[in-house]
Amino acid sequence: MSSVKTGKSILVTGGAGYIGSHVVKLLGERGERIVVLDDLSTGNKEAVLFGTLVEGNTADTELVNKVIAEHEVDTVMHFAAHTIVPESVTDPLKYYRNNTAATRNLLECCQNAGIANFIFSSTAATYGIPEDASKPCGEDLPTAPINPYGMSKLMSEHMLKDLSAACDMKHVILRYFNVAGCDPDGKIGQSTKNATLLIKVASEVAVGKRDALYVFGTDYPTEDGTGVRDYIHVTDLASAHLSALDYLRGGGDSTLVNCGYGQGYSVKQVIDSVSKINGSPINVIEEPRRAGDPPALIAAVGKIRETLDWTPQYNELDVIVKTSLAWEKTLLERSKKDNKAA
Predict the structure, then answer these.
(1) CB atoms < 10 A from the CB of 254, how many?
(2) What digits encode the pLDDT tens for the residues 145-164?
(3) In sequence order, what are the beta bridge partners of 179?
(4) 174 lies in which domain range?
């Protein structure tokens, strides 16, 4: 993947987190100048393989202004956010403070500094529950978030669009579907504590870090009765950010695209894949449906492939699961070594 580099830096907020760190890795391997801003509340210093790490929060406008000036930033990739949906329901103001209000502060800093390009980490949660779950979600689908997490991201999208219309800053909004897997090189992965993403949790069960995987709902109107989701490998998602960067540097107009594969896998298919690759079945406990879970959520992906010239490399469920399981085993071995050292 080629790019016309500017000689200036890319600010990656939340770059020590799961998705941000994978983007930083690809940017670094391409020779980009990078500065990471992360408060390390959920991120890890060890995951930042390239660039300069600044510990701090995007709500700190004084710090953000300083970082942008000192590192000659002309592009911002904004990942820093809280992402746990159930928590957003019980503590909505935490999400509006960190995801929405902090983004507003970051955007003001970008406006004042004349930032050229802004790439925003958004979510399919902005769609809510599609009226027809049998059809892929297109970018023109009405947005109707059913939780504060999705709403906090949608509000940020609107702020970004309004600001871009008022100044020269261009943006790409990437609406993620279900992100999964880990760096195929095994250097970084998802280290989030108390993770809720299905493939991560199933992999933790497989290596013995959890006792069981809870499946919420086996009576959906799907082929096997379990929910169907569009899972995208984190490295493919990271490469989409580099494609977005190249698009903006090439003079592309502001746009919004889905990030997924346009194909769905059921919860049972994920369980079968994890059990197969692990070499033994994982323990599963079936529970009733949760309120608000659609039977299926799949991305329409024509726009991202046409607009950003993006082609995925890891779009097979077994590949995603294999990298996730490999990372969990790496974490387990590290934990054993740390315990021995202690």
Answers:
(1) 16
(2) 999 999 999 999 999 999 99
(3) 232
(4) 9-180+233-259
pLDDT tens profile 228-285: 999 999 999 999 999 999 999 999 999 999 999 999 999 999 999 999 999 999 999 9
Catalytic residue, from 149, 247, 265, 314: name it: 149
Tokens of 120: 């925003």
- How far are the Cα atoms of 42, 55, 150, 237, 329 from residue 21, in angstroms, in the given order? 12, 14, 22, 12, 19
Q: Which residue has the tokens 């024509």?
A: 302
In a domain, 323, yes or no: no
Strand partners, 78: 13, 120
In total, how many domains does the chain have?
1
17 belongs to a structural domain:
yes
Q: List the one residue out of 202, 323, 328, 195 whose CA is nearest residue 274.
A: 202
Instruction: Report CA Rg, the chain.
Output: 19
Does 127 participate in catalysis according to the annotation? Answer: no
Q: Domain with 238 in it: what CATH number?
A: 3.40.50.720
Is residue 3 in a domain? no
Q: Provide φ and ψ at 265, rounded to 5°.
A: -130, 140
Tell me the HSE value of 67 on the side-chain side, using a 13 A CA sphere: 29
Whether 253 contacts 170, CB under 8 Å: yes
- Residue 298 inside a domain? The answer is no
Rounded CA-CA distance 188/48 in Å is 9
DSSP character at residue 137: B
Let me know: does 296 contact 222? Beta carbons within 8 Å.
yes
Full-model pTM: 0.94
